[in-house]
């Protein structure tokens, strides 16, 4: 019962992240999702040994506190408040999130996984979290939202691991967390540099850096 | 049977109290004293004593609109499950009747607004229909989910047979219903009931030309609609049936009161959404109902 509510909450945070245009709100949603992901293993296995609790505390600290602060800092330096023109409009994004969920239910039913500990729900929800993260990365323009998409995707992978493996070694957990920390840190710095260089954090303008000559400065034939 | 009749009589008598509660909550939040809880009763009394004024441009549809709307609403009051999840009339498939009774009511409101020939009222009518397009499927999907959950096709059958164990689905569906409840009753994130600037209003602008008893009927219907859709939400949030009439009635009534309290709090804390953002909210409601349906089917 409690597990199902947590999993549903995970799903609702996915939709919330896809539906909201305000970046501060998005960061808060992803932080809430990180906290839920953090307490998920403890609740699912119903055991409160030292190791799972240590991992949960680490996860919650990093995903629920450190990342939001870090992203909030880069938001402040980049001085953007909201995603203005996403490549996919918000109503359509919500519908896509629902479609992704249907797809991942289908996927989950096709996969023959070893017996899961937590009912039929967690695997499809983990899948849909992964795919929602990917969708957020490809459909948004601002670099910060793409970082959030990456975080959501990582949350999905973590949830998938929780659904399948009863115990992950502490070292692996901490390694993944450290990896993510470095990744988000680097991305935060990258956002800072992008915004200082271009006065905005729209990633599609980075296309101009390629070898292809931009159309607007290509010499015209009349001259 | 007795309890069902009691439900209906209570709804008819107490419905105008709900806007009073909402307004009082908003006043407290704003630090004002606020109008009396029974203000709507005084207003209705005052309006009923007046005579209606009809513009020479209006026809039959204008004066039949409020009456027909109220009649349709009274019809849906017979179907809607209240305390103990029971309703006076029930038959398999009355969920469809219920949803379309609201459609008919909306039709009459829109027709009588269009009949005045005022461009503002036409605009309000167009917005009302536009948002209904998004709200109606959400309501339907939510009801279908519950129907499948309980293997029952009548509203009261559905509402009297589920319990706390269906937690996740009930949570999602009641969230969706709450959004629909706010939208259908033209409450705040969708429509501001207090505004009197035609450009921003939806429901209020449609009734600008009505006066006297007609306006009283419209106000009364609006509060009754609040009660009816509210009992759908409350029934989904508190699926509790002790079997004792008095207890169940008390639970239901306090649920309705708590719902009005929640509406008041939402209205005090939120600003109205941009018109372009409203469909997004309603689609989010639809998505919640859809998730519940997927949970149920899988």
Output the keywords.
heterodimer; A: 223 residues; mainly alpha; B: 298 residues; 12 helices
The residue fraction in helices of chain B comes out at over 70%
- Dominant shape of chain B: globular
> What structural class results from the helix and strand content of chain B?
mainly alpha
Element order of chain A: H for helix, E for strand = HHHHHHH
Percent helix of chain A, as a range, is over 70%
- Unreliable parts of chain B: none
**Mean pLDDT reading of chain A:** 80
Largest beta-sheet characterization of chain A: none
Query: What is the chains' assembly state?
Result: heterodimer
Number of strands of chain A: 0
Overall body shape of chain A: globular
Cα-atom radius of gyration of chain B: 19 Å
Helical element count of chain B?
12
Instruction: Name the biggest interface.
Output: A-B, 22 and 16 residues
Low-confidence parts of chain A = none
The major pleated sheet of chain B works out as: none
Number of domains of chain A: 1
Radius of gyration of chain A: 19 Å
Measure the end-to-end span of chain A. 73 Å
- Classify the beta-strand content of chain B into a percent band: under 5%
Question: How are helices and strands ordered from N to C of chain B?
Answer: HHHHHHHHHHHH
